[in-house]
Amino acid sequence: MTSANIATSLFPTRSPLRSFFRRNFRVVLVYVILLVLLSINIRLNERFFTPPVITSTFNQSMTLVFAGMAQTSVVVSGGIDLSVGPIISLANSLASAVFVDSAVGIIGTVVLVLAVGALCGCINGIIVVYGRLQPIIVTLATASVYSGLALFLRPRPGGFVPRPYGDLLTTRISTLVQPWFSEQSLANTVVDYIPASAVLLLIVLLFVWTPFRRSRLGLWVYGVGSNQGAAYMSGVDVNRTKIAAYAMSGIFAAIAGLFLTAQTLSGDATKGGVFTLQSIAVVVLGGTSLFGGSGGVAGTIAGACVLPVIRSILFFGRIDPLQQPLWEGLVILLAVAAGSTRTFTIKNRLDILR
Amino acid sequence: MSLATDAPAIEAREVNKHFGGTVALKNASFSCQPGSIHALIGENGAGKSTLIKIFSGVVAPDSGLLLINGQASTIHSPADAARQGIVPVFQELSLMPQLTVAQNIFIMNPPRNRLGLINSKALAQKTLQFFSELRFEHIDPNALVSELPLAQRQLVEIAKALSRNPRVLILDEGTSALSIHDVQLVFQVIRRLRDEGRSVIFISHRMSEVDQIADTLTIFRDGKDVGAFPMGSVRRDEMVQLMIGRKLEQVFPPKLKELPQQTVPVLEVQHLGWEHVLHDINFTMNKGEIVGLGGLDGQGQGELLFALFGLLRGLRGEICVDGQPKQISGPAAASNAGINLALIPEDRKTEGLILPMSVGDNTTLSTIDRIARFGLIDRKREQASIQRTIDRMQIKTPSSRLPARNLSGGNQQKLVIGKWLLTEAKIYLLHDPTRGIDVGTKQEIYQLMRQLANGGAGILFFSTELSELVGMCDRVLVLYEGQIFRELKEEEITEENIVSAALGLEYTNSAERTVSLSGTTHS
What we know:
The complex is a heterodimer. Chain A is mainly alpha-helical. Helices cover 70% and strands 0% of the residues of chain A.
């Protein structure tokens, strides 16, 4: 009997689909919630399925998506990063200070900003690991430092951001590739519905997140988050793994900052702050446990899209803008609570606490 | 490298270690030959675990010499120990629950493709193949460790250690949660290691296992080795005497002369069922009785205790206490007056104690509302309760203010029991209370159980150790596939009968199977 045969004969009752749903219940749930909210949104605004609206919805979500990915990489390692927002601000301020209007200048700036993000993350990780300090207090302090640096670089909003850079990230794919299709217009074709930011997200997922998640390092990050004592006993270099998780967070936060820069076409040292707490909210919405060890960006991405969609619904539903935070909060509470409904089906009371 | 062939695979000479004021090892020596299964026994707190932690690089000795293959050596970390071929399996499970079985086992060296990305399919395949070599095929490589029962987790732990190709494998209570069948699987594997010239250091409080597997024996007492022998050269009572430093009078306290005849049993269970795990369970328990629960691993024994303690939802059937039907909605309700149940849980570290809290606070945790007046804790009464418990249970601790984590395993278990004694329960549910604790403490727990029973309590006693069921119980209920398969009384309570019932066999023709499965069980 080959080992494959043994596998099928021994575990016939464990259907892969069922086991997928059981393990990823919260992730599936956040996508269901997102779909429900989207369909409400489409009812209120029949122009939703047009290329400009889709593109702007994506653009409004994308900074938070990247901020959520930053938070996710630290949370799965069992930590938390309160400096995500300030690193976004710092990236935004730095970019607006050094941008030069040439291809080389733009690429150089992007690389520099990414490196600074990674460095900020590394510093967080090194202090957490070697200072033996609580992540929440370390990143609270470094958050302040990074905010200060951002303000130093950009005391007043402004600075220079090359127009083509902004267009590249926030326009539609059709606009970008139109020059190659001079004979036919791409308007109202499928390509027209694809925002450039969606392609950027795909590239980041494919070339940054996936290599991280599927590398040995990624496995170690989840292992450390799951039980760091066990990881240590297994021979995992827990310190370096944690530092790497924070560095990943810094890189994603820098990407978020670069996208924010493209979207606003200016630098502002105070724009990133709101993303710290929002990033934690979308991580939880996306089904990643704050205790670490499980979850991932699939849920986070959906979670990050939920917030702008709620705002859009409130806007088109003509809700008083002053009441928006109230409704936003209630919807988030409801969504998180829905993720806990499974506790009612648990038959062993002790399992609820586990 | 030309090494003397008779150099020990690993050796400690005159090693000292203290933690704060506590001396863990003083001038302790130990050596293990290649191609040997070397048992290390001693009471809890005798220094075995510390020695093992030194070998595996978790703690560094204060002084003394470590030799690997006859060469002086240092071991800096668990990773360093593994590089030198020393791989421990610890009593505290050291798996990562949210990772899959396969990811846990090959976390240091998962199969990767050319881009350095982990190939999940190859990883599962590799694990499957490895499991079939070990005959652990019943474990799904793709299951999350958190989804597995305790016994399978322990097997995974052992498999993980084996995957690192150890020259010296250390099993520290590595078989304590395993059923007889699984223990035999593990024994086959470690015999193979021995035959390949590797060494196994085997720590277990199950003496029958030590008898069965070890070829050499070192005994530790009070942080020092007090003797090393070839197996079989010392008698069991001499071993025990060396371990505890005194003569062991009688292993089990006397049983009831005759089963009590009462009209109203303290506990009566009728047609109890839960999910697919328990089916139509019927039994009664009288005051003063110790009723054993036997059976192979995972036949519903644990769930039965949970059901009685109110931990399970959606129960079928009826539970009567003192003849009154009761709805038990949870531990708080179970320990209340009128029901008065106490559960000594399986895992003292997570369910029995709150480890960072002090010994004192743990003691009064379940009874604090009785000590409190107007919602405020009466410190004097609290202190009195704590002192009474420490004295009664003979818990060895310098102060009741120390965190419970600092106690040794046996003392932790005594603390768990002491906590529940304060509730003055009528019914005690014991979930393998002697798992992983030393002979001396076991004795104390046996005596205490009988005292409680003689004082009028009913005790439902689930043990994975056959000799305990035989020695302690007035009746034994053997579970098989969630049902009571057989009830054994008086002379019927023998290891053979329990094992044959556990396998679901009828009385006849059971003898051969029994011997082959339980190996050389000594009673």
